[in-house]
Amino acid sequence: MWVWGTWAGAGPQSCRADNRGARRWRGSCCRTGRWLLDEPFAALDPGLRTEMVRLLTALWQERGLTYVMATHDLRDAERSCDRIWLLQEGRVVLDRPVEGLRDDPPDALRDWF
Q1: With contact defined as beta carbons under 8 Å apart, do 71 and 85 qualify?
Q2: Where are the domains of the chain?
Q3: Which residues sit opposite 6 in a β-bridge?
Q4: How far apart are CA 4 and CA 43, in angstroms?
Q5: What is the pLDDT of residues 81-99, one digit of tens each?
Q6: Which of 34, 77, 98, 103 has the largest CB neighbor count within 10 A?
Q7: How many CB atoms lie within 10 A of CB 97?
Q8: Position 16 confidence tier, pLDDT thresholds 50, 70, 90
Q9: What distance in Å separates the CA atoms of residue 71 and residue 52, rounded to the nearest whole number?
Q10: Is 76 exposed, middle or buried (0-12, 13-18, 19+ CB in 10 A)?
Q11: CB count, 10 Å around CB of 2?
């Protein structure tokens, strides 16, 4: 599943990391105004996951960065994105806003709920 959203265009000072390589990578991403994220919350414990979602949401609201996020966790998409694309066999089979997704899920997502 690919998820798209518009985020905050953060500067390097907003990109925290525990190691130097990750800081350099994140700083570079911050300067481009576009991010590509592959399962960004997958290996995080619940507390850090919540903190990262909070940070990304704050960046999105404050600075308008564009990003694409791959995830298999629909909850991550709902918490951190404003639009969802569902891919099946390399084709987009769903493209819609995340808002109201649970209230009226399309057939392609019924099993996820």
Answers
A1: no
A2: 2-112
A3: 66
A4: 20
A5: 888 888 888 888 889 898 8
A6: 77
A7: 10
A8: very low
A9: 15
A10: buried
A11: 16
